[in-house]
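Final report, closing paragraph on structural work. Over the funding period we assembled a curated collection of sequence-structure pairs, and we close with a single example.
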Amino acid sequence: MVEELVTFHNKANIRVQAQIYTGRTLVSTCLAKPGEIHTLQCGLAQHDIYFRDAATGLELARKRDSEAATVVLSRYQGHYILTED
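Its predicted structure, as stored:
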């Protein structure tokens, strides 16, 4: 089995916890400060990505059934936006 990787760019103005799940199983997680880039293992090509505020645990954005190799979390007009390649 080939391990898939996801590159995460935190362009938001806060610390963020990124989590990748396959089904109900947490595969990888990281804590990213503003401007940081991390590479996370996702196990399978299709996975769920969640982003939470590191201070409060509140969910900021999510993408289910993603196959993206790169995801970017940013803030635009007061909303957190998740884009992927």
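The longest strand covers residues 25-32. Residues 5-84 form a domain with the Immunoglobulin-like fold (CATH 2.60.40). We thank the funder for supporting this effort.
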